[in-house]
UniProtKB/TrEMBL annotation:
Protein name: DNA repair protein
Every Archaeal Nre C-terminal domain range: 296-406
Segments crossing the lipid bilayer: none
One GO term of the biological process aspect: DNA repair
Native organism: Thermococcus kodakarensis (strain ATCC BAA-918 / JCM 12380 / KOD1)
Domain of life: Archaea
Statement: the UniProt record of this protein carries the keyword Aminoacyl-tRNA synthetase: no
One Pfam family linked to the record: Nre_N
Family the UniProt entry places it in: Belongs to the Nre family.
Domain Archaeal Nre N-terminal: 19-284
Amino acid sequence: MTELFNSKLCAICKGRKLLCGRPTCPILERFRVAQSVEKKLNKRHLFGSSPPSIFVGEHGYPKVRIGPLVPPIEGNTSHLDSPLKWENKTIKDILYYRSLLVMGETRADVSVRKSGRVLGEIQELAMSIRPVDSEVILKRKPVVKVVPSEFAPPLGPRAELLDFELTENPKIPRRTDYVVGDELKAEQAIMRLYNWGFDEYYIIRLLSAGLLGIDRKLVPTRWSITAVQDTIGKNLRREILGYPEINSYEVYFHEFLGNRYAVLLMPQSYAFELLEVWLKGSLFGSAEPQVIHDYEDFRGIKGYAKETTGAYYAARLSVLEHLRKRRRQARIIVFREVTPAYYAPVGVWQIRVGVKKALENPVGRFEILNEALEAVRKLLEHPLERYLQRSYILGHLAKQKTLDQWLGKVLT
């Protein structure tokens, strides 16, 4: 097995022998997708219906790349940028969707007070809840490639932006106008929109475009995703701490886009842990896969999730939504296994969806912990003992002598 791109092995393989052990060649797959849309994008002047979609980069902060994402297609294009609705899509579908969205990129200061007409148009686009007919003029024909991301949905073709204009009025909800026009702190604005039922990625778009908070600034898309998921998660955690605990051990499971998600809920006070393994042959896997993790108790995580990064906030939010709906609290462990079938990162939205779908698929309820752990063992490929040795929650329980003799032996 090898890392994602090993020049020597790739030269020998040429995508035909799959020497890396993956079910499909990630290089050839991206090439095929790009090739399938190249003719549609071979021009500098584009007219189409933005889903709507924008992107804000982080490189060079506080001078960042920003731009609208516009496909050469008119009509209802909302499916091109609806991550939480892609639960029945394949990685190839997602790469194709993103390859159609051309980004006209320009540099801007993060301070929206220094914005000009183009940024104003981009902000109006961000507030829309329906596709908006848009016109983009580029300095040159876009470079046709798709760049996968472990945080945001993949970014497609791009070129320097000369001009951008909305050719129809965007559909902006009154409640959005109210939140954007009021002097609310970003957390207050995010929670109002969330509790009103707005799509999570719509809120992320507003934050990225510098439309939320008192001190308005552009926020890189990657940062916005984590900020919104973390903000909502913190508020839901405070709420469920007042609910009674569940009364049995519960195990759930779902496999999505080459990721396995097993969720263990325990009848104790709230704590959350994500245990993650990139298996041998997966994108970032190694010959000896290691378990990485992050953890929090009722006080929340200290600082940023250093090992599992954005996956932590995405997985936590899905479980907290589940518990809030049930009006219960629990001690939680999410096991994530990344298999070779996940050949191109598509963003943390797939973790949100994968964990959410897992919680809709119960494996069983158990009276004692070792029975629940045996159920988890059967769902995973990586040895359960490796997870348990790394787990803070189960290690802490063992120290409190609340586990049975079997688990005590595993951890010794």
